[in-house]
Amino acid sequence: MALPSITANEAGISTYNRLWTNAQKDLDAQLQTEREQFLQPEKDHVKAFRMLAASYINYLQIFHRLEEAHSHLIHQQKRAAIRRVLDGVIGRILEMKKEMVGLENSEFHYTDNVIEDLKLLPVQIPIPEYFVKENLEGLQQREKTLHEILLNAGLETEKPVEAMRFEEAIKMIQVAERARQGRRRALFMKQIHLEEKRKRHTKLQEQTGPDPDDAATCIQKVWRGYIQRKKTEKMREEEMIFLGMSNPPHLRALRSTPHMHTRQEDALQAEVQERHEEEFIKDKLRETEGLDIRETLQDQIRQCFMECRHIIGRFPDYPAKEAGGSMAIFSQKTPEQVLLQKQLEKSMISVSFSPLFSLFWITAVWQNRDEGRDFLQDHDPELIKAEKREEVEEEIRVQVMVSLAHRTIDSLYRELAEEGVLIKAKPVNLSDYVGEYSYLGTTLRQVNIEPMPSLADIRQLIALYGILPLGSQTAHEKAPLVKALLLAGPTGVGKRMLVHAICTETGANLFNLSPSNIGGKYPGKNGLQMMLHMVLKVAKQLQPSVVWIGDTEKTFYKAVPKAEEQMNPKRLEKILPKFLKALKAEDRVLLVGTTSRPFDAKIKPFCKVYQKIILIPRPDYASRFVLWKHAITQHGGEITKLLSISCLAKLSDGFTQGCIVQVVRAVLSELRLLQMARKPLCTAEFLTPLASQDPVYNEEEETFKVMLRAVLTGSLSSSPAMI
To answer: Which InterPro entries match (predicted)?
Structure first.
């Protein structure tokens, strides 16, 4: 009897069901172990850390298997069940990490001995696929919208056309040449045809006389010219009347009447002239002062809303039409007006219709007016300008209130993108941050040498504090909350790349609040408050979101350099703590700062804002070896016996990842790639470009280490690097 065949799909389902089952069993066993081990407090720090590290590693193993099962299973109910367990495991990993940091007073842990005891290999934290997949369609639409906004605003250009193949290029040239020859031949044939037609026309005209069509065309030209001249005269006359340099037709007819109509004519002429001048003055005011009026009104409205929010804890409702609409916001009286109001109320005079107000206006305007030079007793343009200014302010006030009261998330999103505050994240994965695991951490500590963290450790911290909380709503709400993260390290170690990797792995928006980017934008205190309010509103509504501050040490400068005073780099210093305070556990918004000179900042407020500080070092030998190999192959190079990666890794000691990538790009030009087949790469080709790069010296790296150690231990004043 033949056994039924098993399809590949059924085998795969069975495999991932078994993977899920085994992971669940390991999770139950781990929870039981924790109940037994953590009942009694452990006083020995070394033993306690080994227990925590073992649990942390076990959770990572379980996390890895659960994520793999979740990403491959198709059954939606099974995926939902695994998803709940995954969120719980992520939260538990973050809790374990917090306990380990508190125990060792360091973000970096060296667990190579624990991994060896468990007979395991180092496990990197996996990034669950559902972080992006569950909202893939919305993310693609948002990316398309952002691309269109940046394209229309001129902040982005279309991608260059990719180079075509050689055969396609030849075919395109052939088509273009044949088309050119066809156009030339068509033009030549057209000239021959026109010449023959001209000769036939000349011969026919000699025989029969003038052509009737030509005569009709000549008459049409004359008539159309006459009509156009009449229209032009009429338009010129209307323009002269509008400018007050000529009288309307009915007034010109009155000039032929006796003197009894002279006074009426003069009054009508003055009225028309004044009306035209009023319109001209109003248009001029709208053109010259409209922008300033708009900005002033916007500042007043924002200040009013901000003060109300500070007092009552939320933004006030827009005033109803019955309550005066937006005019209610500007109805504040001066102390003199309030005093006058009270006096009128006490005197039992009707405030609304009191003749005193017109009397005050007459006294203020006309009593002490010098009219000695006003011989014509004509209208005063300045009074008209003051009156029309109020009308212009009223028109602009309505426009401003409508634009502010009905702002949608889409409009805020568009404005932030057009201003360059909301930017497009580069598609970079965390796995692209190449670096090797350190296997000697525990060994170095046993001989009292503090090891530098490896790039694999950096990847783990970025995943723990940036990607996992932003990707999982449950983990963000219930696990230890990290609102702000600082990446500190020399130039070229990949700080900005890690920021973009966080956004790519979670599908997060990226807001750029770097001092160099927001300098000159949204000026003034009210403008700054409004910008942060817009960023916070969009970031919360379209979460997850990352708010990035590059060169963040400038925000906390000890002394602002004269060259940067105009940029006002410290404008965010006092408002950032309030910004972070507004972020709640349910808001998947992360503030990420990057700095290559943290020692230029005032350390106390600097560390108060950034809850977690991650020092990113220059790569060690193992990481440089992997990086050289990866960069060369990624840029089209081939590694042969003539190219010693080990030699390049040793010679590049002290150089950052950015330096290595720049060297590879400089060597592997298009011409060099074409020569690869007959001229393989050799080690010497990379030495000259490498020598032109600036390394990170031991003194600079030691300064970073001292600063970080002082921050973690709280001894801010004991380190000379802090001065």
So the answer is: ATPase_AAA_core, IQ_motif_EF-hand-BS, N-DRC_Component, P-loop_NTPase
- Tell me the residue type at 282: K
> Which residue type sits at 639?
I
Adjacency order of strands within the sheet including 612-615: 422-423, 509-512, 545-550, 589-595, 484-488, 612-615
**Whole-angstrom distance, CA of residue 549 vs CA of residue 512:** 6
User: What's the number of domains the chain is made of?
Assistant: 5
Say which residues have a Cβ less than 8 Å from residue 682's Cβ, sequence separation at least 6.
642, 643
Question: Is residue 160, in this structure, part of any structural domain at all?
Answer: no
DSSP state letter for 348: T
> 676 and 595: one domain?
no
Question: Is 716 a domain residue?
Answer: no
Residue ranges making up the domain that contains 271:
239-288
Please tell me whether residues 436 and 579 are part of one structural domain: yes
- How far from the centroid of its chain's Cα atoms is residue 425's Cα? 8
pLDDT mean across residues, the chain: 78
Q: Count the Cβ atoms, other than its own, within 10 Å of residue 616.
A: 25
Residues 6+ apart with CB under 8 A from 461: 107, 108, 612, 614
Residue 675: what pLDDT?
87
CA atoms of 216 and 236, how far apart (whole Å): 30
| Same structural domain, 428 and 565 | yes
Statement: residue 603 has pLDDT above 80:
yes
CB atoms within 10 A of CB 30: 18
Query: What are the φ/ψ torsions at residue 542 (nearest 5 degrees)?
Result: -110, 40
Type of residue found at 375: F
- pTM for the whole structure: 0.67
Are both 304 and 388 inside the same structural domain? yes
**Residue 351 belongs to some domain of the structure:** no
What's at 467, amino acid-wise? I
Q: Is the peptide bond before 544 cis (omega within 30 degrees of 0)?
A: yes
Cα dist from 286 to 275, 299, 306, 385, 397, whole Å: 17, 19, 28, 11, 12
Q: Are residues 385 and 529 in the same domain?
A: no
Give the pLDDT confidence score for residue 659 in this predicted structure.
Answer: 93
The predicted pLDDT at position 339 comes to: 52
Strand 422-423 and strand 484-488: the pairing is unpaired
- CA dihedral (95, 96, 97, 103) positive or negative: positive
Closest by CA position to 576, among listed 538, 608, 540, 544: 608
What is the enclosing helix (H) or strand (E) of 379? none
Do you know the residue count of the chain? 723
Tokens of 452: 């530098």
CB 388 within 8 A of CB 284: no
N-term to C-term CA, the chain: 86
